[in-house]
Amino acid sequence: MTVKIMNRSKHALPNYETEASAGMDLRADLDKPVTLKPLQRAIVGTGLYIELPVGYEAQVRPRSGLAAKKGVTVLNAPGTIDADYRGEIGVILVNLSDTDFVVEDGERIAQLIIARHERAEWKEAEELSDTLRGKGGFGSTGVK
């Protein structure tokens, strides 16, 4: 699929790092570094703007290495970029570690995944079909 993109950043376009990668890394586009103190959050710009076809969304997800090694993640993961949004892609980063984290210009801060989605049409009902699980949720299927 083809997606229109405007790159107003100082960095190359996002790309798939391997043939089987689902996501493309997003890079911080900053004039100066941003320091996130423990439990602090900030919207970090990417300098990227996209035009998705209707029926698709872009999901902004954490980078596992950044989360595991530094305790920094995407706060509203996954963040959704709708097909009719035309503003800059921003990433809401949060520092869940106990030390300051400095976001540098060009740093890979999140990944972007393009996904097809459906629009639901509600059909009101008085009852739903039975299943083995039923109303069980939040750990009801077991621990192991």
Automatic annotation (TrEMBL):
General function of this protein: This enzyme is involved in nucleotide metabolism: it produces dUMP, the immediate precursor of thymidine nucleotides and it decreases the intracellular concentration of dUTP so that uracil cannot be incorporated into DNA.
List of residues binding substrate: R63, S64, G65, N76, T80, I81, D82
Gene Ontology process terms (BP): dUMP biosynthetic process; dUTP catabolic process
Alphabetical UniProt keywords: Hydrolase, Magnesium, Metal-binding, Nucleotide metabolism
Molecular function terms, GO-annotated: dUTP diphosphatase activity; magnesium ion binding
Name of the top EC class for this enzyme: hydrolase
Domain dUTPase-like: 12-142
EC number: 3.6.1.23
Tagged with keyword Glycosyltransferase: no
HAMAP family: dUTPase_bact (MF_00116)
Record's keyword annotation contains Metal-binding: yes
Pfam families: dUTPase (PF00692)
Cofactor(s) annotated in UniProt: Mg(2+)
Reaction equations catalysed: dUTP + H2O = dUMP + diphosphate + H(+)
Domain of life of the native organism: Bacteria
Name of this chain's protein: Deoxyuridine 5'-triphosphate nucleotidohydrolase
Family recorded in the similarity comment: Belongs to the dUTPase family.
SUPFAM superfamilies (UniProt xref): dUTPase-like (SSF51283)
InterPro entries per record: dUTPase, dUTPase-like, dUTPase-like_sf, dUTPase_trimeric
Pathway(s): Pyrimidine metabolism; dUMP biosynthesis; dUMP from dCTP (dUTP route): step 2/2
